[in-house]
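[audit] Reproducing an earlier prediction to check determinism. Same input, same settings, fresh worker. If the tokens differ from the archived copy the diff job will pick it up downstream; this log only records the rerun itself.
[audit] input (225 residues):
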Amino acid sequence: MVSKLWLHPLDKPTSRKQQSISARNLLRIACEIEEITLTEHELRLTGLELITLFKEREQQSLSIAHCSSMLAIALAPGEVGVDCEGFGRTRKWPEIARQFFAPGEAKKIESAKAEEIESLFIRHWVLKEAYIKAVQGSIFGDLNRLVIDEKNNVSIEENGFQDSWSAWEMRLCNTLVAVCDSGSSSIQVFVVKSMSHTLADCSIEHLPEHIKPNKSAISVRQLGQ
């Protein structure tokens, strides 16, 4: 099985509301390519309503993400989640890690070199967020079901669930994008450089050759271990 990912880099920061509107336009383009019919009314559904619609009608999982530098749409036969975060912000990353991450992860980020702290934190965050979206969990209850250990091995905590999970990471336009999904053996990535209301007027390319999605197998820990 193959997951598909559509990315649209943003030239300048916009409001969260505008990012959401633009992400629906990217979804419309992806659906047109995949020959999936979405009405204008359906495009205005909430994210959860769209996820339900795709599962019930298209037998596919949908995930939508956006940040100040990127829009992302993921489609997959199995469960899928996508997240993206841009680099270059000033934050107290170790403090946030202590608040949200597992103790070992927070310690790893605190002890990292100053120039590596932001990228290390963002990698943890986008992988965790992508997994939460895939299982429709919550940041407050499920963030640390996915853990990255000191050897960079990725694992998830499940209660008897033994599906095959993978994670893909790629850096494009100073933004880290992560996809977590169950059951897919590969991923196809499309970069929509310019969007229009007609597919013929859109500029769509494959991911540049020098950018290869980094795949990680995700091991499963039984709940409570």
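[audit] rerun output stored. Observation attached for the diff report: Helices lie at 16-33, 40-43, 47-58, 93-100, 103-110, 117-135, 139-142.
[audit] end
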